[in-house]
Design goal:
It is built from twelve helices and 20 strands. With 423 residues, the chain is α+β, with helices and mostly antiparallel strands. A hairpin with a 3-residue loop joins strand 19 and strand 20. The radius of gyration is 22 Å and the shape is globular. The termini are far apart. It comes from Frankia nepalensis.
């Protein structure tokens, strides 16, 4: 472990070290404010580590201002220009660390090596703990190793392995943290955790990614918390591409993920049909957090996501609530999606949720989507949100299987349960 000033003194002038400290303090203030906004207070131990670890030493080649900005720093792209490695955004790191609880003395495995998060984990586990960070890419591992050494964290173990299989030779772990986007929960994650140990991973469910903190209970994993997040996709055996279909040349795409077969031609023609609009009567102010609404909507059988370019929005091809990952439904040759919010009370800053539908059955789908927004508002808004249970696929697991929406993956069955409902 390292002292902040000594970490940078060998490689940067004193004024740069001081400026880095000022920028880091500003970053932490912004992170703490965001944590309060989303209802996940920043633990003091995580705040201290964010202030201590010199993030700029893990982002060589970018300015201090970029290093401490609220954004991820891409460190490698593949031949197609897709981001495959990054130093995660500060809020993503702080959110996942806040989910971990007290790590004093813990044995930790991190899958996905940017280096900075491993340094923070090393600080959190203390002298009695240990941290192993792994990546499938030799170049990424070498970069993480160099940055960790430069920052004074030579006691973090770095290995090149496919994270799908964990690292059994150093198991069992009190915490396994995945810092790349996962589509499934590999058996090794559960098997290499101690009983009661924690898995924290950005898990994609029907195209929506959340960081789930999951505690091992025998042959299953049960959620403790979940927050919004986004990470570069997993590589290797655990990689899983998102199914998508382009609907319009202006740039409208449906991200299907686990949705079954769709009428591609019919959906493309649907956007040429008149738009049906439905307004839900549910309002929200611009500061309210409503991420769990998307999780409620994903339990609908026809759920998918709509992505639109700015050109498609400017040409009024679609009017989505936002251009990236708007909740949508697709059935036959029709679709519906959550609409651009409508201002209904300027003095109070209130906006209304609405939906748009296209195609022969578009109006009905739009009404169904609007009705589920009303159900969310009536039954789940401001509540604890869903829980997630991860069960091994194959043999029937021991114990009672919870009610809820079931999504089967390659290795596991995910059961998302909402209080007071069977889905």
């Amino acid at each position: 472990m390292t002292d902040l000033d000594s970490a940078g003194s060998a490689t940067a002038p004193a004024d740069d070290i001081e400026r880095a400290g000022v920028l880091r303090a500003g970053m932490v203030r912004a992170i703490a404010a965001w944590h309060e906004q989303v209802g996940l207070p920043l633990p003091s131990r995580v705040r201290e580590v964010l202030l201590r670890v010199p993030r700029h030493l893990f982002t060589p080649g970018v300015s201090l201002e970029q290093a401490y900005a609220d954004e991820s720093i891409v460190t490698k792209r593949n031949v197609d220009g897709i981001d495959i490695s990054a130093v995660s955004a500060p809020k993503a790191i702080s959110g996942m660390l806040a989910q971990c609880g007290d790590l004093t003395g813990a044995r930790v495995l991190e899958i996905g090596s940017g280096g900075c998060n491993a340094a923070m984990l090393r600080e959190l586990v203390g002298p009695a703990g240990e941290v192993t960070t792994v990546d499938i890419d030799a170049e990424v591992v070498a970069r993480a190793r160099a940055c960790l050494d430069r920052a004074g964290y030579g006691n973090v173990r770095t290995l090149r392995v496919d994270g799908e299989f964990g690292v059994p030779e150093h198991a069992p772990y009190d915490l396994i943290m995945i810092t790349v986007g996962a589509w499934d929960v590999a058996p090794a994650y559960r098997e290499q955790l101690v009983e009661g140990g924690l898995l924290v991973l950005p898990l994609r469910t029907r195209g929506l990614t959340r960081s789930w903190a999951l505690r091992r209970r025998g042959d299953r994993l049960e959620s403790v918390s979940q927050i919004m997040c986004g990470f570069v996709p997993m590589q290797g055996v655990g990689a899983h591409d998102i199914r998508s279909v382009q609907l319009h040349e202006a740039g409208v795409t449906l991200m299907l993920d686990e949705l079954g077969p769709v009428d591609t031609d019919g959906l493309g023609e649907a956007l040429d049909s008149p738009r049906a609009e439905v307004w839900s009567g549910v309002t929200i102010d611009r500061h309210e957090w409503f991420a769990d609404q998307d999780l409620w909507l994903l339990t609908m059988p026809e759920f998918c996501r709509l992505v639109a370019t700015q050109d498609a929005v400017d040409q009024d091809v679609v009017r989505p609530s936002w251009r990236i990952a708007t909740p949508a439904l697709a059935a036959g040759g029709s679709l519906a999606y959550r609409a651009r919010f409508r201002l209904v009370d300027e003095a109070r800053g209130l906006y209304e949720f609405g939906t748009c539908g296209h195609g022969p059955d578009g109006a009905r789908l739009a009404e169904r989507l609007a009705e589920e927004i009303r159900v969310w508002d009536r039954d789940h808004r401001g509540g604890p949100g869903p829980t997630l249970t991860v069960l091994p696929l194959g043999d029937a697991p021991a114990g009672e299987t919870p009610d809820g929406f079931v999504l089967k993956k390659r290795h596991s069955a995910l059961v998302m349960s909402w209080p007071g409902t069977d889905r």
